[in-house]
Specification:
By secondary structure, the chain is of the alpha/beta class. Strands 3-2-1-4-5-6-7 form a 7-stranded parallel beta sheet, sandwiched between helices.
């Protein structure tokens, strides 16, 4: 299906690996121009080399820590200098690595919220004004089903993802009149090389697969490209009347 994304500039935060890389691949397949980003310049270069085959003119790159305001400003300047602003902003910044338990130091809450909430808000405050001025654009937040219901995830992580989902809903109401749509994708268990689930499989495959079979009606992991397809649909004109929504892609795991 042609989603009509040809030529659109899509900035995908955290796209040198994992879910972000899968999302970047889908947008490129749909004809978009994609900015590949990540903290590790070598990983960014590797992802660009892999994803640019047959379409090098549509792949841009930026290496830097997007949780830092000055770095985000520089990323925005680079994109503008390349010939146009961002038409779709994919806020894929976060980490599920966090301390468990209910008695946690304030520093741990601050660290987890900084990467899972504040970093995405920093992207919004930098890139959104141009979208509002142009009266068109799309924002996609990548959240987690851990922000929707209790699944045993670390408390700061679940709370930060719940905050992202609320922020997305409120933001959609505020900028809809300016022609900008804002939506969230909440992935379930996504498997990719080097990711958390791959590490758990390597440690105890039988236990992990038993959980997946028991808890996920489709009885499998999701792929980064499946999350990318959900995001690409939401950005496209086929979803033109959808804003403030949270699209859950979890194989049926959540119950609420």
């Amino acid at each position: 299906m042609d989603l009509g994304l040809h030529g659109q500039v899509v900035f995908v935060a955290g796209s040198s690996r994992g879910i972000g890389k899968g999302m970047a691949a889908v947008f490129l397949d749909e004809g978009a121009r994609v900015v590949i980003t990540g903290r590790d310049s070598a990983a960014v270069d590797s992802a660009c080399e892999e994803l640019s085959t047959g379409r090098p003119e549509r792949v841009l790159s930026f290496a830097g820590d997007l949780s830092q305001p000055a770095v985000v400003q520089e990323a925005n300047r680079r994109v503008l200098a390349h010939g146009g602003g961002v038409e779709a902003l994919i806020c894929n910044i976060g980490s599920g690595t966090a301390q468990n338990g209910w008695q946690l130091p304030a520093a741990e809450w601050d660290r987890v919220f900084r990467i899972n909430l504040w970093a995405s808000i920093g992207l919004i405050e930098t890139f959104l004004p141009a979208m509002v001025e142009a009266r068109r654009g799309n924002v996609i937040f990548v959240s987690s089903i851990a922000g929707l219901e209790s699944l045993g995830a670390p408390l700061p992580y679940g709370a930060a993802k719940a905050a992202i989902e609320h922020y997305s809903k409120d933001l959609a109401r505020r900028v809809g009149k300016h022609g900008v749509r804002v939506n969230t994708v909440a992935p379930g268990n996504i498997l990719f090389p080097g990711g958390t689930w791959q590490k758990k499989l390597d440690t105890d495959s039988a236990r992990v697969m038993s959980m997946i079979t028991a808890e996920v009606p489709l009885a499998r992991f999701g792929t980064p490209e499946e999350i990318g397809s959900a995001a690409a649909f939401l950005v496209s004109q086929r979803a033109a009347f959808i804003t403030g929504a949270c699209l859950v892609a979890d194989g049926g795991q959540t119950r609420a």
